[in-house]
Every structure is written in C-alpha cells, then in structure tokens.
Design a protein that fits this description.
The chain has helices at about 35-45, 60-65, 65-70, 90-100, 115-120, 130-145, 165-175, 195-200, 205-215, 230-235, 245-250, 260-265, 275-290, 305-310, 320-330, 330-335, 340-350, and strands at about 25-30, 50-60, 80-85, 105-110, 150-155, 180-190, 220-225, 240-245. The protein is α/β, with parallel strands linked by helices. It has two domains: about 10-265, TIM Barrel (Alpha-Beta Barrel); about 275-355, Four Helix Bundle (Hemerythrin (Met), subunit A). Helix 6 runs parallel beside helix 7 (about 165-175) and helix 13 runs antiparallel to helix 17 (about 340-350). It holds the Pfam family Dus.
C-alpha cells in the first residue's frame, strides 16, 4: 500500500485482531451525491489519516464519458479510493488502470448498492448472486494494477439471510486474490425497498462480519452500517480490522476530529472548527478562481459556492449556534454572490465555545 500510516496504540481501542492495513482502520463510505472531491477535501481538514472514498463511478461513465470530471481530485485527499460500479471484467480492468494512472490509492468494486439503476446495469448488490463473476472481475483488476483491489458488499440479498451465503461469497472472491472486504452488515432487498429504506429497514447483523474475521483471519474485514459513536467504533475494532462510517460522518463530521489521535496514534495535528473553516474559505477561493465561479475566467457560469458549502452544514451539529451557522451558510442571496468570505461570516455567528 502507498500509505505508511502506523497503527495506533490506544489501549482499549486497539483491535484485538491482526490489523492488516491500519490505513483503513477508519474510513468514510462512498455516498452518491455526497462524497465528491469538495466533501472529501472538507473531511480531510478534520482528519488527516482517515481513508476517504469517492462516489460510485460506473465503468461506462469512465470509458465513454469525461474522465477528468470523474477522476480529478486534490492531492491533499490521500489516502483516497475510487469506487467502481460495473460487471464486465475487461471494462473494470480498464477503469482500474485509469484509477492507478490518476493516483488513487485503492480501487473498490461496488457489490452492495441496491438501487434500481444499478440493477438495470446488472451490478451493485446484484453481483452477490454471481460470486464467480465477481471473482473474475477482481482478478482482471488485480492483473491490471498494483494498487489494492477491494470489494464492498452486503451480507445477503433478498431472502438469502443465512451466514453461509456471505461466507461463501467472501471465500470465492478471496480465492481470486482479494484481501479486503468492506461488509455492510445488512441484506440488500432488491425489490420493494428504496435505497434509503435499504439503509434502515433490513436488520443489522454485525455478528456476520465478526464471524467472517474469525473464519478468514488473514483477510482484512471492515464493518459498515449504522455506526454513530466513538464507543461503537471502539467495540467493532475489537472484532474486525476497520470501521467505515456513512451518513454520520456526513451529518456530524466533527465526530472525526479525534480519529487521528485515537485510531492512528497521531496527536501532532490538533485542529478546531475555526481552522477548518479558514482552510475551506481558502479552498473555496482557489476553486472558484480555477473554475470560473468568481468570474475570472470570463465565463458567465462556473463553479457555485454552494457546491462546496453544502457539505459543511453539519460542522457545528449539536453545538450552540449550530442553527444560525447553517442559516448563514445557506443564505441564497449570499451564496449567489459566490463570495468565499461567507464562510467567515458564518463562523462569526458562532459563540466562542463552539469553535
């Protein structure tokens, strides 16, 4: 792996299992329409070491679309992984090569998304019904690149609820050389539930991920689904190698503030909300200038400030002044001006105790 981050030594929070790659000890899940490059850059101001994932990008979008638009990212985002959606081994291999060429640290295959869109494309969670095909996909990608190839999946699909189903799936893919599995510990219901309902209604079965680690001790098993607190992360790390957070990291990003010290043993970089907002103000200014959002490129339309600030609304969640902060940062009139100093105005609305 390109990451040289060392495993933390934090007493009770250190995993009792053999951690294969401490870089993925904690990570932020790929989330469509949310974890774009601006969101990841914001998260990187809060935690330096946490592994970040892109939104899912389909192989068709890369092979037939604008590669730069989909793959460009900020150097500061490392370690960062590209998640791919697809089911054709040759196409996935081609896209994995693009991921490596563009500098990603990992390429991840989506075998967990239950949306109708991915079902029409015969990928995502549908692939759990075809482990041999997934194995072929993984092998093709591994043969094409030197970076890690990983798989994110559910524990079952529809009424396939027995542990044996996910155990055999993981075993088949592991035989193709995959060493890292990100386990969303819910079934995917392919018919009758929306993607949102699929994140909430099927019951969480964390014990399935724990059993996978016991049955495959040489694999890196990362658990995902419903994790909201540091205490929950600590408990999972006593059973598996890593924990991936989804919506909690997005809606309550300051939860990640202690991650570097707590899970990576790096207490050298402490930050506060004021520093994060100041850094993002400078980032907004640079991005607006680069993409014409400040009018400097002579373009009538370019990047809009809201494309960045929308990811920051949860920064003060649970703190005094949080509502006023969100209101300032969401003011349509001020956003229309594309002035990055809006972030400083929102900061000024906060009581000192909140920063």
């Amino acid at each position: 792996m390109q990451s040289t981050i060392q495993q933390a030594a934090q007493g009770d929070v250190v995993s009792k299992v053999s951690t294969i790659n401490s870089g993925r000890r904690v990570s932020v899940a790929p989330m469509m329409d949310w974890t774009d490059r601006h969101c990841r850059m914001f998260h990187r101001q809060i935690t330096r070491h946490t592994w970040l994932y892109t939104e899912m990008v389909t192989t068709g979008a890369l092979i037939h679309g604008d590669v730069a638009r989909h793959l460009d990212f900020n150097e500061e985002e490392h370690p960062v992984a590209l998640q791919l959606g697809g089911s054709e081994p040759e196409d996935l291999a081609q896209c994995a090569r693009l991921a490596q060429k563009w500098g990603y640290d990992e390429v991840n295959l989506n075998c967990g998304c239950p949306s109708e869109r991915v079902q029409r494309g015969a990928f995502g969670a549908c692939l759990m019904a075809e482990p041999r095909l997934v194995a072929d996909c993984v092998k093709a990608m591994r043969d094409a690149v030197d970076i890690d190839v990983t798989v994110k999946h559910r524990i079952g699909i529809d009424q396939q609820e027995a542990y044996d189903f996910v155990r055999d799936f993981v075993g088949t893919i592991a035989d193709a050389g995959c060493r890292t599995f990100i386990v969303h510990a819910r079934n995917a219901i392919l018919k009758g539930l929306s993607p949102k309902e699929n994140r909430e209604i099927p019951p969480l079965r964390y014990e399935y991920a724990y059993r996978l680690k016991r049955d495959f001790p040489d694999l890196e098993i990362i658990i995902n689904g419903g994790v909201r607190t540091l205490e929950e992360i600590d408990a999972h790390l006593r059973e598996v190698d890593g924990v991936m957070l989804g919506r909690e990291a997005y809606h309550n990003p300051w939860l990640m503030a202690p991650f570097d010290a707590r899970y990576y043993g790096d207490a050298t970089r402490e930050t506060n909300r004021e520093e994060v907002i100041a850094a993002m103000r400078d980032y907004c200014a640079a991005q607006l200038a680069r993409h014409g959002g400040d009018g400097s490129n002579g373009r009538a339309q370019g990047l809009r400030l809201n494309s960045i600030t929308r990811h920051m609304l949860g920064l003060t969640a649970g703190m005094p002044g949080a509502r006023l902060f969100r209101q300032r940062l969401s003011d349509p009139r001020r956003l229309a001006a594309n002035d990055p100093d809006l972030l400083l105005e929102a900061l000024a609305a906060l009581p000192a105790a909140a920063v």
